[in-house]
Task: inverse folding
């Protein structure tokens, strides 16, 4: 009877859960809605019920579960303490301890969601075979997770990898949601692409595929850029220049073997990788060509893979 | 008969060595010149002789030495491999293995010099009591070392903490020795202070204490700034703004508990810390006030402390 490891990824709207073998095979996955009413105080009970139900449906014994990992969309510490998680309404709690109690004492471990996704890509995604990676997710915002010698870094305040708020553009005049101006979030995220695309359209008069859109999306900008639309290309180059510079800076700071790019914007594939790499190499003169930049493989499942891997590490070290 | 741990810090002109107890007490230290002739092929033999001589002079038995750590001014890997070290003329070698052979098999471990200094401050300097620190040295150039949960990070290519070449100033027009423009080295190092001080003096006509100097040094600029000289203050603020921004970025990337500032420029004391902190807090809106910025304590001995600590870790884990 093989041991099972469960990975949970709590998002602001849905909770994903997956059941894994020790070897990293995903046996079953499912989603339930995230109930953020009443300061999210039903979330852990909902997770417990859904785990028990799914084990029963598949005739897996509860005792087969060796550990559970949970990705949380907030700065959870290595000690398990979470001071504040605005997305869920949680504050001042130890979610791993609380969930472990609901699960009759099965050991539970927590981590930040982007860090968990990094660990997932390291374990079973495009980071497989590397020892040290930086996973960067380009979605609504920009986040990242850092794995050094197979270990996920938490950071002293749970902020490790929160690269959305590194300062990249001193010329930016709009204020970021962090209160500063010129953050990477304002440039290389899906929202950043749209915001900068609108600016570039406004200050140019030339025709563009993008002018035909009622509302502009990052996907439309990326598709138009792939089709050679000049203003769309200008937008993508402008935004990714800042990401390439940031990757160069991270090469000098944490020096991973590979940067793995995921999130919605990465669906533009090799097209976007080539642009990022161009600006990375322009900046990283000393490390040029030394770190690889590749696409993520696990998509939205990266978080549950990483959470399961963290529980595996907890149980087997 | 207590075990001894030896820390060696190989610099371009001098090699420092210290003998330590397991508890981190420095029992004796000395220096010998670095012989970089003939591709530095005498360096390890010179270290061996000086260690044997010093042990004998103090009636310590050779067998008391549990381990030796060596800080190297180049990107040595965690495996011990050093591809290239221009300062010493070394290339394509495993210095730890070679030195261990000369020392009758005593285990030897290597690390980059700035990373070793970080480990030294963590062990017995101002990082004592913290688990995760970033040590930044402001000397001829800018370097750093990162300790996470008590472990020194090497990086995949031995470049971890090489923050002198992160891009901080897109307006810079002079080329850095790395080939790029606008590196932190060009701003926050002693050379950066002098370079920018000269520029500021050249484009202003107002009187300044600095105009009385035949040749300008970083110390003169810092002393004049402390005395309230307006152009000196402008120079220091201009240069340290980029360091404060970089510390903010590093808060979001590696999120240490504390940043420890060492190197020649740090001799300006609390005066320079206050300026760095001002710009750190301006940029780090989300982490404002969360990481401490403090002065290093061990000065030029940090490297031998760290090297001894790394050998201690090697022998006791």
Result:
């Amino acid at each position: 009877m093989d041991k099972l490891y469960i990975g949970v990824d709590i998002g602001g709207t849905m909770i994903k859960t997956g059941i894994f073998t020790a070897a990293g095979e995903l046996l079953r996955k499912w989603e339930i809605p995230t109930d953020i009413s009443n300061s999210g105080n039903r979330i852990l009970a909902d997770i417990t019920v859904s785990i028990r139900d799914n084990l029963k449906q598949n005739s897996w014994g509860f005792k087969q579960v060796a550990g559970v990992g949970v990705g949380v969309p907030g700065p959870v510490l290595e000690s398990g303490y979470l001071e504040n998680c605005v997305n869920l309404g949680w504050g001042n709690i130890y979610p791993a301890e609380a969930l472990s109690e609901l699960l009759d004492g099965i050991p539970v471990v927590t981590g930040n969601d982007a860090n968990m996704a990094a660990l997932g890509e390291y374990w079973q995604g495009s980071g497989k075979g590397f020892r040290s990676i930086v996973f960067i997710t380009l979605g609504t915002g920009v986040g990242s997770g850092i794995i050094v010698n197979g270990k996920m870094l938490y950071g002293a305040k749970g902020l490790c990898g929160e690269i959305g708020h590194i300062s990249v553009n001193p010329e930016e005049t709009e204020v970021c949601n962090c209160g500063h101006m010129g953050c990477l979030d304002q440039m290389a995220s899906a929202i950043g692409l749209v915001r900068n695309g609108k600016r570039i359209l406004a200050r140019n008069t030339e025709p563009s595929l993008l002018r035909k859109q009622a509302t502009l999306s990052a996907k439309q900008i990326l598709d138009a850029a792939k089709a050679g639309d000049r203003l769309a290309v200008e937008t993508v180059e402008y935004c990714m220049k800042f990401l390439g510079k940031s990757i160069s800076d991270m090469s000098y700071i944490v020096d991973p073997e590979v940067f793995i790019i995921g999130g919605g914007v990465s669906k533009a594939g090799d097209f976007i990788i080539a642009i990022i790499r161009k600006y990375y190499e322009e900046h990283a003169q000393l490390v040029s060509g030394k770190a690889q930049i590749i696409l993520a493989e696990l998509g939205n499942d990266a978080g549950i893979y990483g959470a399961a891997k963290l529980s595996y590490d907890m149980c087997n070290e």
Notes: The mean pLDDT of chain A is 95. Chain A touches chain B through 45 residues (CB under 8 Å).
